[in-house]
Design brief:
- The complex is a heterodimer of chains A (about 325) and B (about 325).
- Chain A has about 325 residues and is an alpha/beta fold.
- Chain A has one domain: Rossmann fold, CATH 3.40.50.
- In chain A, the strands form 2 sheets. Chain A has a 5-stranded parallel β-sheet, with helices on both faces.
- In chain A, helix 1 packs across helix 2.
- The radius of gyration of chain A is 20 Å and the shape is globular.
- With about 325 residues, chain B is α/β, with parallel strands linked by helices.
- Chain B has 2 domains: about 180 residues, Rossmann fold (3-Layer(aba) Sandwich), CATH 3.40.50.970; about 130 residues, Rossmann fold (3-Layer(aba) Sandwich), CATH 3.40.50.
- Chain B is built from 12 helices and 14 strands.
- Chain B has a 7-stranded mixed β-sheet with strand order 3-2-4-5-7-6-12, sandwiched between helices.
- In chain B, helix 8 links the parallel strand 10 and strand 11.
- Chain B starts with a strand and ends with a helix.
- Classes of the chains: A alpha/beta (about 325), B alpha/beta (about 325).
- At the A-B interface, helix 5 and helix 6 of A face helix 3, helix 4 and helix 10 of B.
Amino acid sequence: MAFVEAEPTIELLSVKALRFMLVSRVLDDKFASLYRMGKIHGGVFLSRGQEALSVASALSLQPGDLYAPLIRDTAGRLAFGESLLDPIRTYLGSALGPMRGRDGNVHWGHPRLGMYAMISHLGAMISVVSGGLLAHRLQGRRSTVGLSSVGDGATSTGAFHEALNQAAVEQLPLVLVVANNCYAYSTPNNRQFACKSLVDRAVGYGVKGVEFDGTDLETCLRELGSAAARARSGQGPQLMIANLLRLCGHGEHDDASYVDPNLKTSQVGRDCLEVAIRKLVDSKTVTAEDVALWKSRAIDDVERAVAQGQREPGPDPYREDWSALSTEALVERNWPQ
Amino acid sequence: MSITYLEAIREAQARALAEDDRVFIYGQDVGAFGGAFKATKNLAREFPGRVIDSPISEDAMLGLAVGAAIGGMRPIIEVQFADFSTVGFNQMVNQAGTHYWRTGMPCPITLRLPCGGTSGSGPFHSQSMEAIYAHYPGLVVMTPATVADAYHMLLDAVKIDDPVVFCEHKLLYYHLKGDLGSGDRLAVGKARIARVGRDLSIVTYGAMVHEATKAAEELAGEGIEAEVVDLRTVKPLDTDCIIASVARTGRLLCVGEAYPWGGVTAEVVARVAGEGFNFLDAPPMRLNAKDTPVPYHPDLWAVHRPSARSIADSARRLVQM
């Protein structure tokens, strides 16, 4: 008789999540530092303040599920199963990374493993996840879930509207996670939408909607776990609105001086990592020494991975095949140069 | 057996669905209704669950196609009129067109675009979109002009691992009849000499192949023998075939139904000027639609687009240079 794996307790899941959050935060700090040293080509976009939501999103998924992370999902990507080297190689432009220097910063993925490589156009990944889910349906794989991660800014796009309506019409097992971090670049919520809460939109699409505190890890784990279970059991798309605050600029080029100081001291302005550590230590689930040890291990792991990434070669333009088509016979090679 | 261009498209889809379980069709009104032009007539009944009606959401339709293609399927997306594909443009050029380059994983989508002008259709149901898709890397753009090409090239499009924009011309849907041909087929990306001639090369594609052929017949009565080159695909562009034709005739007239700024005709002229300049006995000439939206009234429309008459006029001027 095979062992039946028991559902992990919320405490065990929280500890697992916390360790990914610590690595994500350490990695963020390292990227910020490398950016300031001029070691990174292009922009750097951090996940600070969104780690709890991000990690809970990925931990709600099972093998075979689909995941479309967005700009601030370092914790979720790691929890979904990617290597620490992937973000580092992508930011450093390593030829050995998943994007081989052809695309950079937050635009990496492993589509063969169900983790999509985002494009910059907001809202555009939602219908891609729906396509993956429709493929599963047509292939007779009925128990998988797809999770797409967006921010408050993406909710204003036509792509968001089209995709959520489409997923609702098809009753796809889509979990659409909106990290409402109060600002889309510098644009505050009151210049982004006029409804009282984004969750009010759920009824208009005919989908289940839930609004919750994105700064509390346990809440994120419970809400997203339930949402994925509902989607998996055939209850259709789930619109999940998490309220939190981006604890950094849009990118590291942005000092975020426009952020309302009152927000920083409000519930949404709490640092989800600090909140998670405090609650888990207070409940004696972990000790402060555990956390310090995990953090120091995370620093070691990140330093080692960055050192490796920095030793690796970048792409060689003279060995690049410069082919945007996989069908070699259809590639035009005779452009006048 | 002679069938219409539209029937060829329907038959090709039926065969693709029958031969490959990965193929499905997604688009507005394509299911029980059979499509706005009936290009999917009865297919929903013959292939249950695989011909799926979409909401009016071109962006989400093409995004879904990308996800399904990555997920191992071969989606055929019917956009009701090519003009409306602008709403889904982002997913096609930025998502489908970049996916293989970025990730190494191909994205096999066939995007069917009913394109080109028909009398009375006006500015938003008449446009030719091939040039803007061809401008972007990572896409193949087909412009079949014959019944046999409509059938076989659509089957090719579904088999190709890369995203294909299949520009099917609405004017040919009901009026053009032919058989599906047999024997050797031209490979994807190869142009065809539709008519042999010695005095000038008229290079064109889609419905304009038939206007050019009519013009060539009229010119033949005056002793001018025009060669007509049917490009078949505009991306990749068969530069070798074009230059070989110009080498034989010494004169190039490139005709397209799209707007005049840039586009396929400009690309052809640029390549001939760059790579076949020594073969030219006269300046290369282009003929396109006018630089206005496509007009509604039949009298305006007939003059807005190139026609057998305007092509013949241009050819006469070209051979006198």
